[in-house]
Amino acid sequence: MTSFIHLLQEFPPLFISSSGLLGLLVGSFLNVVIHRLPKMMEREWRSQCAELNNPAHETTTQNNTQSTPVYNLLTPHSSCPHCSHPISAIENIPLLSYLFLRGKCRKCGAAISMRYPVVEALSGLLCAYAAWHFGFGLAAVGAIIFIWALIALTFIDFDTQLLPDDITLPLLWLGIVFNMFGTYTSLSNAVAGAIAGYLTLWSVYWLFKLITGKDGMGFGDFKLLAAIGAWLGWPLLPLVVMLSSVVGAVVGIFLIIATRHGRNIPIPFGPYLAGGGLIALFWGQHLTQSYLGILAVP
Question: The whole model's pTM is what?
Answer without folding.
Answer: 0.90
